[in-house]
Design goal:
By secondary structure, the protein is of the alpha+beta class. The chain is about 60% helix and about 10% strand. The protein contains 17 helices and 5 strands. The structure holds fe (ii) ion (2 copies).
Length: about 450
Amino acid sequence: MGESEPLQGPPPFSAEWARALQAELDDSDEFRRAAAGWQGRLVLERIAEAAAGDATPRAVALYLIDGVCREAGAATPEDRRAATFVIAGPADVWQRLLDGQGSPLTALLRGQLKLVEGSVAGLLPFASAAEQLVRAAARISLAAPGPAPVVIEAAAEPEFRSMRPDGIDFDSLPMQLWQKAKQFGIWDPRAVDFSVDRRDWLRLDELERDVLLRLAALFGAGEESVTRELLPLIGVIARQGRLEEEMFLAAFLWEEAKHVEAFRLFFDEVAADRSDLSRFHTPSYRRIFYDELPAAMDRLNADSSPIAVARASATYNMIVEGVLAETGYHVYHSILERRRILPGMQQVLAHLQRDESRHLAYGVYLLSRLVAEHGEPVWRAIESRMDELLQPAVAIIQEVFAQYEEPPFGLESEVFVDFALEQFGKRLARIEKARESEDGGSVAG
Ligand SMILES: [Fe+2]
Ligand SMILES: [Fe+2]
C-alpha cells in the first residue's frame, strides 16, 4: 500500500521514526493539550505479514507524561510489559491512518487495530490525543493528501412525479418506511395514562427520582433539538426532487415533535417538575446539542454538497439517534421494566424506540446512497465526523455518572459506555457495507 506517495521521512515503526515522532510531538501544542493527564508507556506495533516473508515485526514505544513524550525508540520487551496500551495492526491499516483516513479509535472499534494491552474505555479520554499523535506521525511519514474534490449535485428539474404512472417508487426503502410510519407512528402521547406512573414516582427515593429526571431532561431537549434541526435536510432532499424521501421525512418530523410532547408530559404529569431542566445539560451534552448538531444542520441552508449532507446525517442520525438516543432509551426502558415501574413511560419508550429505528434506517439508507453515488470522499467525511463526535458522545455518559457516588438502580457507567460503543461500531459497519459493494464506484470523483 501507499505506492501513490513517495516516502519522505524515516520508515514507519523504525527507531528513527519514533525519535522523529517525539520531536514532532514536542512541537505540537494540540498534542500537548489533548494529552494532558495521559501518563504511561504506549507501544505501537506493526504486525508482520508472514505470507509476504516479512520477518521484522516493528514496534515503537513512547513514554508519555502529561502531554510530553519523554522517551521514544524501538520497543523492548520491558516496554511491552510496562505499557498501559499496546496497539497493534497490519501495515495497510497503519498506512491508511498515516494517509489521514480515519482515526485510531475508530480503527480499534472496527477491529482493524487491536488493543493487545489496555481497554477501549481506558483509551477514550485520550481519543483526541491519539488522533493528534497519528497526525504528527503522518506529518513525518508521508505528504498528507489534500481533501478530494466533490461534485456538487445540480438542482433537479421541477416535475410532478405523482402525475406519471410509476412516478412514485413504492418499492423503495423510503416508501416502505413511510408505510410503516403510517402504521406504527400514529400513537398519541396524550393518550398515554400516566396515573400509575405518578404514584410510582412518589414511592421512588430521592436519588432514583434524580437520575430518572436527569436522563429525561437529556432526552427531552435532545428530541426538541432534532425537531428543530431537521428542516434544512428536508429542504435539500425536496430541492433534489427525491419525493419518496421527502414524504418519509414529513412523518419523521411529525414523530420527533410527538417525542418532544411525550417528555413534557412526563415532566408535568409524572415528575410534576416546574424547574428549569436545562441545568442537567453537561458540557459535552451542550457541545453536541447546542453547537455541533445545529451547526451541521444549518450548514445545509448554504451548502447542499454530498459531503455537507453526509456530515449532517452522520451527526443527526448516526451519533444523536444511533448512539445517544438508542443507548439512552435502551437503558432507561430496561430500568423501568426490571423495577416494574412507570408503565406509561414504558409504553412511551417502546414507541420512541420503534420510531427511532425507522429514523435510523433512513439515516443508514441516506448515507449508503451518498457513499454509493459519490464514493470515498463521502465515506471519509462520514468516518471523520463520527470520530470527532464519539468522544463527546461517550463523555455525556461519564458526566452523568460523575454526579453519583453510587448510582441508583445498580446502574453502571461501563454498561452504558459499552452499549454506546457497540452501537457506534454497528452503525459504521452498516455504511461501510455500501462502500465495499461500490468500491471503484460509478460516480466517484
Ligand atoms: Fe425522537
Ligand atoms: Fe428520531
